[in-house]
Amino acid sequence: MPWFYFDVLHDGDDVTRDHKGTELPDMGAARTYALVLWQRIIQERAAGGRDPTHWTIAILDVHGTVLDLLPHPARDEALG
């Protein structure tokens, strides 16, 4: 199974890098995993964390190539 990395691109040049990665079967599973990450980020915001409205989660492969970008769900309604 391939490894995927999920970097969080904050406002400006601030990035939270995923140095550990996650082994998943395919890109579909990686997108689903990114949505789970969004749910966690949104819950943290509800508990008083930073505003993630303009953030994006980048899905990367082991070489650091960006495979997909998932904006905040309110921007694309990914979480319904």
Characterization of the model:
The protein has 80 residues and is an alpha+beta fold. It contains two helices and five strands. The chain has helices at residues 27-46, 73-76, and strands at 3-9, 15-16, 22-23, 56-60, 66-71. Strands 1, 2, 3, 4 and 5 form a five-stranded antiparallel sheet that branches. The model has no long low-confidence stretch (mean pLDDT 88).
Helix and strand composition category: alpha+beta
The oligomeric state of the chains shown is: single chain
Rg estimate, integer Å: 12 Å
* Total helical segments: 2
Give the % helix.
Answer: 25-40%
The stretches of 5 or more residues where confidence is low (pLDDT under 50) are: none
